[in-house]
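Side project, low priority. Logging it here so it doesn't get lost.
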Amino acid sequence: MIWARFKTVLAGFVLGLMVGAAGLNLAAGRHLDQAELKIRILQSQLEDRTEQLSGMEKALADLEKKLAARQRLVVSDIDVHVRYKDEYERLEIEAAVKKLLKNLMTKEVKTLDPILVTNIVDQRIIETGKHKYLLTVKETLVSEKIIMYVEAKEVKEQVL
């Protein structure tokens, strides 16, 4: 009789153990499914953020290149305006002044002194064809484009 009762208690214990394990398995399984879903969502978000970060790194590198290029301004053009009555002579004088300034092309703007750039042309006598001209610089702008306003006066040769 004790044996029969022991069997019943043992069967109840084993049945309880199996029902408990099945219930635990269901609860843990649902929890694992939710955790796996959360992991996949987080992995997807991580991939999106990684792509965004690489795109932003490329954009930052481009901006840094542009900023570096801006900080290293170089002379890329020379614009000379000569005030003189004869248009043909004026064009020749402008060409002569540009020839004087051509060595400044591709120089860094921050290394150029506007006074020295002006002194290259100011009070210089140039010869075009048969005539000589005294150049007087009125204004000079030194940036990526050197702009210079010059007044020209014909010089008559003096015989001694």
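Brief comment: The chain has two domains: 1-71, 77-155.
Revisit when time allows.
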